[in-house]
Every structure is written in C-alpha cells, then in structure tokens.
Amino acid sequence: MCHTIPFKAGTAPVENSIVASQQLFSGFDPKRRTHIVTVRWRDHVVTIGGGAPIRVQSMTSTDTADAVGTAIQIKELAQAGSELVRITINKPEAAAAVLKIREQLDRMSINVPLIGDFHYNGHLLLRDYPDCAQALSKYRINPGNVGQGAKRSTQFAQMIETAIFYNKPVRIGVNWGSLDQDLLARMMDENSRRVTPWNPSSVMYEALIQSAISSAEHAVKLGLGRDRIVLSCKVSGVQDLISIYRALAMRCSFALHLGLTEAGIGSKGIIASAASMSVLLQQGIGDTIRVSITPEPEDLRTGEVIVAQEILQTMGLRSFMPMVIACPGCGRTTSIVFQKLASRIQNYLRKQMLVWRKQYPGVEMMNVAVMGCIVNGPGESKHANIGISLPGTGENPAAPVFIDGVKTTTLRGALIVEQFQEIVNDYVHRTYGVTVTS
C-alpha cells in the first residue's frame, strides 16, 4: 500500500530544495586529481595537472626546417599567451633546426617550452639528433604511428628511453585518425562474439582509451614516472570527445590534454571547441588545452591561443586579459558608435597586455563595459570596473562613465573613443600600478 506523506509549507521539502539550489550554485564539479607534470626550459617552469592552472598550448604551422620563420611564429604564439608551443619534427632537416630555433628564442628572451611532435620516424630522429632531444622540453608520441607489428613496441620503447635519459615529460597522444589498427581489429573481433555486441562507436572509444592507458603503463614499466606523462585521446566530434574523456578520466590519474583533433574553420571550429571542452572543464576534467581551429587565409596563427584563453576566462577558470562586456545591439542602438568603441577598446587592451602583464599585476581581472543604450547600459556599467553607456538611437552622443560603480563624468562629442581610452589608461595606472616605498 502506498502512503502519502502530508506536505506542510515551509518545512523539509523547501529546505531540501534550497540546499540543492546551493549545490547547483557552486558551479564546477571538483577538479579531477592528477599527477602534476613539470615542463621546463632552463629556469622557466610550467606545471600541468595537480593543482596547476589549466594551461594553454598551441602549435606552429611553419616548416620547422625554416628555423627563422619557426622562431618568429613561436614568439608570436608565446606573446599571445601560449604557455607551451608544439613544433613538427618529421624529417632530419627539422630535427637539425630545433637547437637553432631554441637559441634564437633564447636571444629574444622567449622562454616558452617547446614540444616536439613525432610520428613514424621519431625514434630515429631522437637518436640521431641528440641536440634536438635535449633542446625540446617535452615530446609528443602517437602510439598508433610508432611502427607496425613487432616494431611498434621496440620503437615506442626507444622514444621513452630517450625521454628518461634527458629527463623529459611525454604526451602520449592517441588520435582516431591514426589509431592502432591491430588493436582496433582485435577489439572488433571480440565484440562480434559478445552476446550483445556494442555499437561500433563504443568499440572505437574503448580502443582509443585502451591504446592511451596501455601505452602509458608500458612507459611506466620502462621507467618513466607517472608524473612525466600526459594523455590525450583526440577525435573530431563534440559528443565523441566528451564521451571518451569522461571514461578516460574515470580510469586513470594521468594529467589530460584536451582538444578536438580537427575543430574546423571559422565559427564552426570555435563553437565546436568551446562546446566540447567547456562541458569537460565544468566537470573537472582537463589539465591543458589546445584549440585546433583552421585559420582563415589572412588570419594569424595566434587566433587559436586567443580562443583557448577566452574559453577558460569566460568560464571563470583563468584570467588572461581585461574582459570587455558589450551589448549585442538592438533597435535602440542603430548607431555604430558603441560597436566601434567596444572593438577598439578590446583590441587596445589585448595589445597593451604585452606591457601591462608585467607592469600592472592583476590588470587581467579588470572588467570594462561598453553598452549601447540606456535600458541596461547604466546598470551593466556600474557592475564593471569601468563602464560607459551610450545613449542609443537619435540622440547626440552623451555617454556617462562609471568607475567602480560611481558615475564620474559624461563624455560628449566626436572624441568619445579617445577620451574613454585615456580614462581606462588612468584607471589601470592608479589601480594596478605597483607603488614603490622607500
């Protein structure tokens, strides 16, 4: 018999719902615990995993054999905020250029660690070019591309032993485009004998995970510490990536590198990267990320760094530069003044961060609001550190400026953009400048 429990307003059910709401308000799931991996170049250290911030990585698109061109692009990526940069090492000429690249970066005071990306012949290049093996700060090995048949284990071991000798961490990066076909075929055969076979996607997921974990455990048996290993299982589909990394995170304690292997071009690549990685990061999964977007023909390579930073910053996981809050515009904002202002201020702040990052610690936490009309403009502006609210359509430009919630002035005329920029500069200097006392 079913008994109905009387409900009395204001008692336990309401209290329970409030507690549940508070749990929802907490935001992120607990961060997954991992081994902390140390990547260094000389005195510069970048930590991955453990309690370290989620790191931003990128990759060059130059021919690594072109030492000058590659060093220039690495400098651009590092100045944009990439904390590690991966370079392709696919031929003897590329391996021979690595030390030259490292030396050029050192002369330019660019201390970003370099990751060598190896496929097929990595065991030979690391053996034949010891300067390359030593100048790199980390190796990336794809277990699906280290050799066929009996050679696979031997050549993988040679690369791991080189990493141990030079004390280098390794990312074991499995990719569904180059998955170990022997492993996949064996698992497909096993699946066909199940009473209730899995669907093909599930078999592929399991093959990726097994390839990554078994390769990592093989490296550990060879003597590479668990704190020297990062894992990745990259695919192109958003739901595929989420499913694989959820399972991978449950089955190992290695630090994890997140990223779609081919995110796509333009808005598609940006949205796919944000959609997949944000879900995982919200669940506490992921220790370093790379956004593999295809640049438009005229775009700079640094775009992938900016997108990665913005994913982390908009989620509240890290701060890289002041955030510009701007309304989208509507029928009350047919003037493009606020759009120009928002664009110019955002570009200006990003450019200034090359200098401000060192001169004004904490400036990356600043919020700037650029609003287009009087409906939500003043309120949003008051919530920001600095805010400006333009009047909207059909009015002479008269824009109140708010600093830390207090209206301080009203800008008018044709030079609103330049005047507001000066106000931002003054605020940064007064608020984040380091005062030297005698």
Automatic annotation (TrEMBL):
GO terms for biological process: isopentenyl diphosphate biosynthetic process, methylerythritol 4-phosphate pathway; terpenoid biosynthetic process. GO terms for molecular function: 4 iron, 4 sulfur cluster binding; 4-hydroxy-3-methylbut-2-en-1-yl diphosphate synthase activity (ferredoxin); 4-hydroxy-3-methylbut-2-enyl-diphosphate synthase activity (flavodoxin); iron ion binding. [4Fe-4S] cluster binds at residues 327, 330, 373, 380. Residues 46-305 form the IspG TIM-barrel domain. Its EC number is 1.17.7.3. It holds the Pfam family GcpE_C. Keywords: 4Fe-4S, Iron, Iron-sulfur, Isoprene biosynthesis, Metal-binding, Oxidoreductase. It catalyses: (2E)-4-hydroxy-3-methylbut-2-enyl diphosphate + oxidized [flavodoxin] + H2O + 2 H(+) = 2-C-methyl-D-erythritol 2,4-cyclic diphosphate + reduced [flavodoxin]. Binds 1 [4Fe-4S] cluster. Residues 324-425 form the IspG C-terminal domain. Its cofactor is [4Fe-4S] cluster. Pathway: Isoprenoid biosynthesis; isopentenyl diphosphate biosynthesis via DXP pathway; isopentenyl diphosphate from 1-deoxy-D-xylulose 5-phosphate: step 5/6. It comes from the Bacteria. Belongs to the IspG family. NCBIfam families: ispG_gcpE, PRK00366.1. Converts 2C-methyl-D-erythritol 2,4-cyclodiphosphate (ME-2,4cPP) into 1-hydroxy-2-methyl-2-(E)-butenyl 4-diphosphate. This is 4-hydroxy-3-methylbut-2-en-1-yl diphosphate synthase (flavodoxin). It comes from Candidatus Vallotiella hemipterorum. The lineage of its organism: Bacteria, Pseudomonadati, Pseudomonadota, Betaproteobacteria, Burkholderiales.
